[in-house]
């Protein structure tokens, strides 16, 4: 049962336990689930960005094969279903109603105007395509900068001038004062373009209502089933929370887009109640483009004040954040608290001031997408610092080094609210520069200057805030949710162990990493431990997975629950060994009396006796089970340096990412293989934004990039083999010392690749800034124009 040579699992690069299931097609996803009597829903989506719905002719499809029901906004209203709420409030925030089915106005292409339920998916989709909807097209607006202009089309009457909020942070007067004494001011006007999340598994929901008990079961693609249950039950369906069980089985990626409560989930719940049959909906890929929450979409003006000797004195930012047509769960938090507070980056600014205006437009709603606010902040600060280096004729690495927050200054209070927990930035810079042979790259760049191919080196040092918590702080800032995490450890009489967590794995490898933590604490083989997650009917309450919180917050809750188990197990062992607790040691998976190694009890002996309860210490409760709730004192602040190397063909404008190196610090690694996998995926996602991806809209709000023919995702041949390095600076305030790593790659790589492209163009022909994505056409034209049209 126990292994005397118990190996150490924390820190071991073991392969993921869950992967054989995924790579052999044995995963169990929502769309795989078939319930008896199940019918299918198909959404009728607005082809207009903005339109009055004058009428819907339900009769136009009632006789079509298999059609059971057509639902409209009126049916939603009649059933007393609430608007989908916003989970984060800002002062004077305007939150227009967000009905599950639009009532009389569609506000973006893809907005749901009706639903057809039929016996098969094909029948539902055929009828949805045939349903007669009478629209009156209205003027629409897609860009935030246009939407705030006088006379712009109004998206919602209750959001005057399309402005949902004004928000600011930092000291404006101190920032102005620092700008007054600057030797140099560097300015940037930059767009951070909109992105589509593109999880590999499209969203899917299946609801079953049981009339006899009044209970609902919802299988859905969720990153946080308890949040889904809370919001859907209490605010939308108006039912007791315990009457809704949400199961999020295997989920094929989320990248933030599966945090939110979507209209389709409400629709299948209601339809199942009305029809008395299970109802399923699964998105087609083209539906994902117009209905999954999108990411980024900022228009920013920023300035940096630099002193005589290259000191970064102050930073000023003014950003328009496009929120799209409705505000969803985290929408107000992403461009404010997740963005503005990170604008300081890794530097010792005297003052920072950030203003953000949240703008509503006739586009798909924008919310969290991998990194959520932090990639936008990192992109802006790291672009402008590179521009400053170019203009000061300084090496970008040296300007950064000169201005880093120093290791002895942690915990570090930034001018924009955050207190960075721990950090040591310079070693990541040194390691990355050595690893990538930075000096040689600069020499090569000089050699290639003026040739057909030119070289660019993009370097960034970043810090990010993740491990979303603590509840008290985020509550003060407007969150309508707690940010702690729970864990339940259940030891069975046989010594086999189930771990229940409120965190949710949808590609992050928790089924391996969490048992690694447990195997070390319990000192039992990892094969005796299984992680259970994603089911509100089985787990204690938890807040799910986003903001790279599972390792630092969920993992810490697990550690605490495990410590309760080992403390009780030791008491039982001491009692069985007739020794005092202080004389018992737990080593190599066995409880032994110090100095009398022949007297021992295994974890199995203890687990069995905890349940048989024949011989327990006086007054001890039977069983071996413990729950812990962990609410950290602060966020955690991973950091690192990334270096991208690009080669640009000046005759075609084609940008090739030639090399990429990263040195990340997220404290100790639970599983280096998983952590590196997270960095790999993250880098690809971030370079995708820099070079390829853009959810482009026309000016009225039609999505121009609505399929993979127009929306370019990175493919294997777009990315080089990465060189990865690490430093290890623990977080001082969680029991594992770990910081998150799930978003770092994306947060860093967009800025690194962008800086590499602009570094090449600056050195070649003095181009200061171009907006992403750096398509061949854009780069070629810029080079041609800079060379005077040659
Ligand atoms: N880990 C580790 N050592 C550390 C930190 C983390 O070994 N010091 C491991 C963890 O045990 C976990 C993984 O790395 O297995 C990621 O942990 P963490 O950084 O805590 O992030 P989360 O598990 O909370 O995942 C969320 C994060 C986010 S916010 C997005 S978006 C994202 C991401 O993870 N979406 C993903 N990575 C993704 N990966 C996949 N495959 N699919 C997604 O949708």
Report on the architecture of this protein.
This protein is of the alpha+beta class and 790 residues long. It folds into three domains: 19-26 and 484-630, Aldehyde Oxidoreductase, domain 4; 33-138 and 218-253 and 258-282, Aldehyde Oxidoreductase, domain 3, CATH 3.90.1170.50; 295-468 and 634-786, Aldehyde oxidase/xanthine dehydrogenase, molybdopterin binding domain (Aldehyde Oxidoreductase, domain 4). The strands form seven sheets. It has a seven-stranded mixed β-sheet with strand order 3-5-1-12-9-10-11, sandwiched between helices. A hairpin with a 5-residue loop joins strand 26 and strand 27 (655-665). Helix 18 packs across helix 19 (744-765). The chain is globular, with a radius of gyration of 28 Å. The relative contact order is 0.13. The model has no long low-confidence stretch (mean pLDDT 96). Bound molecules: pterin cytosine dinucleotide (MCN). Pterin cytosine dinucleotide binds at residues 199, 253-256, 370, 506-510, 513, 545-551, 666-667, 669-671, 674-675, 678, 681, 738-743. Keywords: Molybdenum, Oxidoreductase. It comes from Deinococcus xinjiangensis. Residues 24-139 form the Aldehyde oxidase/xanthine dehydrogenase a/b hammerhead domain. This is Carbon monoxide dehydrogenase large chain.
């Amino acid at each position: 049962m126990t292994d005397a040579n118990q190996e150490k699992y924390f820190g071991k690069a073991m392969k993921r336990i869950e992967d054989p299931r995924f790579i052999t097609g044995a995963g169990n996803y929502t769309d795989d689930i078939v319930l008896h009597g199940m019918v299918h829903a198909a959404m009728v989506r607005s082809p207009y960005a903005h339109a009055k719905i004058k009428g819907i002719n339900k009769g136009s499809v009632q006789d079509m094969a298999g059609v059971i029901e057509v639902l409209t906004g009126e049916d939603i209203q009649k059933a007393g279903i609430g608007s989908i709420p916003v989970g984060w409030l800002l002062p004077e925030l305007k939150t227009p109603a967000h009905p599950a089915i639009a009532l009389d106005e569609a506000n973006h292409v893809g907005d749901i105007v009706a639903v057809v339920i039929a016996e098969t998916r094909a029948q539902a989709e055929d009828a949805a395509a045939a349903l007669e909807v009478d629209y009156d097209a209205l003027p629409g607006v897609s860009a935030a900068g246009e939407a705030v202009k006088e006379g712009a089309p109004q998206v919602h009457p209750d959001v005057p001038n399309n402005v949902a909020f004004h928000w600011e942070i930092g000291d404006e007067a101190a920032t102005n004062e620092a700008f007054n004494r600057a030797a140099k001011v560097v300015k940037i006007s930059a767009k951070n373009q909109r992105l589509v999340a593109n999880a590999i598994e499209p969203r899917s929901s299946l609801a079953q209502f049981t009339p006899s008990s009044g209970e609902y079961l919802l299988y859905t693609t969720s990153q946080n089933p308890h949040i889904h249950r809370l919001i859907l039950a209490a605010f939308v369906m108006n039912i007791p929370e315990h009457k809704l069980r949400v199961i999020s089985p295997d989920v094929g990626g989320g990248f933030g887009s599966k945090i939110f409560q979507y209209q389709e989930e409400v629709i299948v719940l209601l339809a199942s109640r009305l029809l008395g049959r299970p109802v399923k909906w699964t998105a087609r890929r083209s539906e994902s483009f117009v209905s999954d929450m999108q990411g980024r979409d900022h228009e920013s003006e920023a300035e940096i004040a630099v002193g005589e000797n290259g000191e970064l004195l102050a930073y000023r930012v003014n950003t328009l954040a496009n929120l799209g047509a409705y505000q969803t769960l985290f929408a107000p938090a992403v461009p404010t608290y997740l963005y503005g507070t990170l604008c300081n980056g890794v530097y010792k600014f005297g003052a920072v001031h950030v203003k953000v205006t949240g703008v509503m437009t006739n586009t798909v709603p924008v919310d969290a997408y991998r990194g959520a606010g932090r990639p936008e902040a990192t992109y802006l600060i790291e672009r402008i610092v590179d521009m400053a280096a170019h203009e000061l004729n300084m090496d970008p690495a040296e300007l950064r080094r000169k201005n880093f927050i120093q290791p002895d200054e942690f915990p570090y209070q930034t001018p924009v609210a955050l207190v960075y927990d721990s950090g040591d930035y310079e070693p990541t810079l040194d390691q990355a520069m050595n690893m990538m042979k930075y000096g040689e790259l600069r020499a090569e760049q000089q050699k290639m200057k003026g040739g057909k191919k030119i070289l660019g080196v993009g370097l960034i040092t970043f810090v990010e805030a993740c491990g979303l918590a603590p509840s008290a702080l985020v509550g003060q800032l407007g969150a309508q949710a707690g940010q702690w995490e729970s864990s339940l450890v259940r030891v069975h009489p046989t010594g086999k162990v189930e771990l229940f967590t409120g965190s949710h794995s949808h590609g992050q490898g928790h089924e391996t990493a969490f048992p690694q933590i447990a195997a070390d604490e319990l000192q039992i083989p990892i094969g005796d431990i299984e992680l259970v997650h994603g089911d509100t009917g089985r787990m204690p309450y938890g807040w799910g997975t986003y903001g790279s919180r599972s390792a630092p917050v969920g993992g810490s809750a697990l550690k605490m629950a495990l410590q309760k188990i080992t403390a009780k197990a030791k008491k039982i062992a001491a009692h069985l060994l007739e020794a005092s607790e202080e004389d018992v040691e737990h080593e190599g998976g066995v409880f032994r009396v110090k100095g009398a190694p022949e007297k021992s009890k295994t974890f199995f002996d203890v687990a069995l006796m905890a349940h048989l309860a024949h011989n327990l210490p006086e007054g001890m409760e039977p069983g071996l089970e413990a729950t812990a709730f962990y609410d950290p004192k602060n966020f955690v602040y991973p950091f690192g340096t990334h270096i991208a190397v690009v080669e640009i063909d000046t005759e075609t404008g084609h940008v090739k990412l030639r090399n990429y190196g990263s040195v990340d610090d997220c404290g100790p690694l639970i599983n280096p293989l998983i952590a590196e996998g997270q960095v790999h995926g993250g880098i690809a996602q971030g370079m995708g934004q820099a070079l390829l991806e853009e959810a482009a809209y026309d000016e009225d709000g039609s999505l121009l990039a609505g399929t993979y023919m127009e929306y370019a995702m990175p493919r294997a041949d777009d990315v080089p083999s990465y060189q990865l390095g690490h430093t290890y600076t623990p977080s001082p305030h969680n029991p594992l010392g770990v910081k998150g790593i799930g978003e770092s790659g994306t947060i860093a790589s967009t800025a690194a690749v962008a800086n590499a492209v602009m570094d090449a163009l600056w050195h070649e022909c003095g181009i200061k800034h171009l907006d992403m994505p750096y398509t061949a056409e854009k780069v070629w034209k810029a080079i041609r124009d800079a060379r005077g049209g040659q």
